[in-house]
Predict the structure.
Amino acid sequence: MRFHGLDLNLLVVLDALLVEQNITRAGERLFLSQPATSAALARLREYFQDQLLVPNGRKMVRTPKGEALIQPVRDLLIQMRSTLENRAEFEPAQSQRKFVLMASDYVCTVLLPQVSRRLNELAPMASLEMIPPNDTPRETLERGNVDLLVLPATHLGDDHPSLTIFEDRFVCMTCQDNPLVGDSLSFEQYKQMGHVLVRWGMQRVPSMDEWFLNRYNFERRVEVITNAFSNVPTFLPGTLRIATMHLRLAQQCARELPLKILPVPWDAPTLVMAIQWNRHQQHDPGLSWLRSLIVESAAAMPDV
């Protein structure tokens, strides 16, 4: 099909080329041979009267025109996909759709199992895929690589609709027989103890550390760094370490490990969790249904 002289099938190739900036990888992504991908690029260059991608050393880079096309092309493809998915009402019992969510293992532990159970009851042929947070969740959403972000509200932008789903608070956790602390914890004790932290992505900087530095000009003494919240408690038994954790996750871990939960010795911010979706999928019936399922599951969680 052509629109203003352009074969619309080439838009999918253009999107892959602009993102990958590599003919071979773009072809692999679309299951096209390298000659076929190169031929498509030649046709795109002719249509836009621009090289779009040019060699720069051993790699290819986008031209200014190619750079300007990235988001409009991605938005157009998302709108087209959303329009096609809106052809009929979403029927959960018949749907074989796969929903892709970006969520931390904390959310995967305290909320998404309940969502999965409800999905199994209501849409047994549908599926969930969870991918871990990266350094650019907003860009990942805008590229259409995920259906929903399930992240702290502070990690979301204003360009797409979002909805708060639940709140949690921070607590401290340490070994039950840690001789350095009793049933309470002072800020001086907290500062002197070794800490277990979570970091992920290329930046490797946890937001909580930024908050500490800005609020108290204090950098915690780090003894263990892991890439998953659910791993944190396993590094506490038999040590003098401490960790700052979400209460809901801490309560689950304390039922399985010899750990105790203590109030944080500082004015901790409330953790507000939210979901966000691409604005072009606002009326996608399947995503609307899934959002409602997540909201209902979150509302059924015990209060903290």
Q: What stands out?
A: The longest strand covers residues 162-168. Residues 64-85 form the longest helix (22 residues).
